[in-house]
Structures are given as C-alpha cells and as structure tokens.
C-alpha cells in the first residue's frame, strides 16, 4: 500500500536560514512582479521597486521599450532614482554622471580628463523583464526562460478572460500584512478545502464550490469554477463579454496571481515576503482607465471584509502552530478525482518549495 504524502516539515516555514536561502535563490530566479506599466506611460517615466532585496527601476526608452536596471550608479555605487517620476536622462545625485534611457553612460563631469576612459564600456546593469497584460515582471536570472515557458497559455487565456486588459489601470491597492511565512499564505490561497467552512460569502455568493478545481499548468496553478446561480450572486455580472459567468485564476509561481471574478473583473494577489514569519499581500483592483467603478470598489470591500479577513486568521493560526513542539506534519488529503476537497495543488506547491530550498 502506498503511504500518504505528508505536508512539509515545519522548519521550512519558520527557520530564518531557510528564508535566506529562498531570498538568494528562489526570489532571484523566478518571475516577480515589478510595477504596472501604466506607471511608465511616457518616454522617461520610471518606477522603482525591490525584488530579492535588490533595488531596481523600470524606465521607458525613446524607442518606447521598457527596460529594467539595478538601481545603482556604475561610478561609486550611489542609488540613482527613488519612487516614481519622469526624466529625459538618468542623473546620479552623487557626482552627476548621466545615463541614457538605454543605460549607456552619456556624460560625467570631467571624465574627459581621464586618459583611457572608455565611456562606451560603462552601462547600467540590465535585468530581464516582460510586460504581461500591462503588468511588468522581472527576473534577476539572466538565463531565465520566457514567461510563456514557465506559464504556458496563461497569457492567451487571460487575454480571452479580460479582453479589455489594455484599458485597465489600478483603481485600488489593498495592503494586507500577515504574521506568517509567505508559503503558508500561498498554500492557503491554493486550496479550497477550507472554503466551505471558512468563506461563506465566497462559497455561496461568488463561486460554485462543487465545480471548483485547481490544476497545474507548467509553473502556474490554474483555478477554475463556475459562478453561483445568478440570483445568489452578490453583484451584477453582465459584462457583455464571454466567460462572464465563470471564475478563474492563474497563480504564477511563486508570488503572484491573476484572478478574474465573474463579470470579467480582474484583480490580483501579490505577495511580498518580508522575513521568515511576515508577508504582505497586495490585493490589486482595476477599472477602465482607473476610473471610479462602484462594482469594483464594492467587490474590493466585500473581499477585504470577508475572504481576506477570514484568511488572515487562518494563516496566522497556522504559523503559530508550526512553531509548536506538538505539531507533526499531517497527511495531505489527495483525492484521485481532485476537486474542491482535495489538496493536490498544495502537493505541487510543496514540491516546488522543497526543490527551491533543497536543490
Ligand atoms: S556614484 Fe554616481 S556619479 Fe558618482
Ligand atoms: Fe481562503
């Protein structure tokens, strides 16, 4: 008889050393969300963000291409830019070395006096990036495969589910600090075994749990379900677009998820791991041109007050439990037929998590 597969050992979620391994390895070798491209609308507009402990910035060039660089001057390492803004060239605040939007060194005070100074050999260090439905993702690994290889079909499916994606801009960002390891939060997101007991609004007013399933699609975990019968829905979903009566989400390993609520309402989850037992979850909500939308605002409030609030208590309790001497990792409930009451997506996640740490 085969033995059940057990959940990961508790130290994977509590040990600061393991978090350090993840920070240097996993976070620096996977596709991570940087910023929304609406922040980079014009030539020279830039936005800074942090990934795997590194400060980076994205900037739109004169050729309209977005590039991402490490936020560090190639002279004596001063930080180049902060926050968001717009600039025709990048000027270092320390000694005014000036870089083109392509990262090449353009000029610097008195550099011509240096014999053998080869200006053309100096360039900001560029990082791989991809715009994915208006979301800019970066990967610090210069040899990273394209997102399509990591997450096959996710882009084309999302384009189908959110046909107006090019017009969408952020309307609301909700920041949710959780006292738990990022993996506890991501695992909780990736199974609906806990939904009927803990998320009555979501289970009764948004999705139809008996049709819920999560399946791997490359390094994406794809959630699919039908929505509730129309009279039980908590809002009007008649968007006039196909798939308006479905709920779907694309979790892109390791820390981002696109969700499409019934009515083709795009929203996102973005985890930022702070240390071994703290993570911040950003819930992003979008509307056409970022204009006011009652439905989206209401959904954001409903979600914050129900599903998100309910999950905070679950994940924080789990984190406390993982430090208990009385905890021995239990068997995962893996139903061969999958479905809502099976933890097979957690099994996939824990395999990826373990590989990222143990190599
Ligand atoms: S460190 Fe940037 S110009 Fe000197
Ligand atoms: Fe949940």
SS element count, helices: 9
Q: How many β strands by DSSP?
A: 17
CATH architecture of the largest domain, by name, is Alpha-Beta Complex
Q: Judging from the principal axes of the Cα atoms, what is the shape?
A: globular
CATH domain class name of the largest domain:
Alpha Beta
Mean pLDDT: 94
What is the rounded distance between the termini? 29 Å
The biggest beta sheet, please? 7 strands, antiparallel
The chain-level structural class is alpha+beta
CATH topology of the largest domain: Naphthalene 1,2-dioxygenase Alpha Subunit, Chain A, domain 1
Uncertain residue segments:
none
Share in β-strands = 25-35%
The structural domain count equals 2
The kinds of small molecule bound in this structure are: FE2/S2 (inorganic) cluster, fe (ii) ion
Order of neighbouring strands in the sheet with most strands: 1-10-9-4-3-2-5
Elements, N to C (H/E) = HHEEEEEEEEEEHHEHHHEEEEEEHH
Radius of gyration: 22 Å
The named CATH superfamily of the largest domain: Naphthalene 1,2-dioxygenase Alpha Subunit, Chain A, domain 1
Helix content: 10-25%
Summarize the structure.
With 359 residues, the chain is α+β, with helices and mostly antiparallel strands. It is built from 9 helices and 17 strands. The chain folds into 2 domains: 35-143, Rieske Iron-sulfur Protein (3-layer Sandwich); 150-358, Alpha-Beta Complex (Naphthalene 1,2-dioxygenase Alpha Subunit, Chain A, domain 1), CATH 3.90.380.10.
